[in-house]
Amino acid sequence: MTYSQAIKRLEEIVKLIESNQIEIDQLAEKIKEANQIIAYCTDKLTKADQEIEKLWANRLKSEE
User: Fold this and answer.
1) What b/e string do you get for 27-36 counting C-beta neighbours within 10 Å, with b at 16 or more?
2) Which of 24, 40, 45, 58 has the fewest CB within 10 Å, making it most exposed?
């Protein structure tokens, strides 16, 4: 799953929950899925941030 796909799925889950047309059992499942997607996205963003920091540090070193 790409980051964009994950965000799209998260948006779908939020819309479903906001519609109030979901059974309580399904609600628990969707919240669990949403939490997994949030963890996935957080991990992707953290890794991207670390890579950017690394590239930036390398660039600064090469300019010295």
Assistant:
1) eeebeeebee
2) 24
